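# nightly structure sweep
# worker-07 picked up a monomer target from the shared queue
# config: single-sequence mode, recycle default, output format = C-alpha cells
# input follows
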Amino acid sequence: MVRWLNDDEQKTWQAYVRLRQRMDAALAAGLARDGLSFADYELLVALSAAPDDAMRAKELAAEVCWEKSRLSKHLARMASRGLVERTPAADDARGILVRLTPQGRAAIERAAPNHVDLVRTLFIEPMTNREAEALRSLADRVVPVAERSAPLDQPSR
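# output follows
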C-alpha cells in the first residue's frame, strides 16, 4: 500500500523540486554566457580537482552520478571542442583516461568567477547561517540514504 505524502510533506517536496529546477535553470543560463553547459562545468570541476587534471572515465562517471553512455557522448562533444582528451589508460587498455586540456582549464577558469558569484547571489546570500547549517545537516542525513538507493558505481541518471 502506498504511503502518500500528506499536505505538508507534499509542499516540502514541491518546494525542493521548484528550488532545484529554478537553480539549475539559472546556473545553466549563467554558464551559457561563458560558453559552457551545466554538464560541461560539472565535468570540468571534477577533472580540475583530480590529480594531474585526469580521471578514469569510470571514476568520473561515479563522481558526477552519470551513466556510462551519457558520459561517453558528452565527453565526445567536449573533446570535439578541445576541452578534454580521452586516451587509453596506461595500466588497463580497456579503461579510458579523461584529461582536462589547457583549453578546458582556461574555460573553467574563465567561467568559475561568474558561476561562484551567481551561486553566492542566488543561493548563499538569501540563507541565514542557521538555514545553511540546517541544509548541511539535512544533506548529511539524506545523501547517504540516496547513495544506498542508487550506489555511485551504478549511476541512475
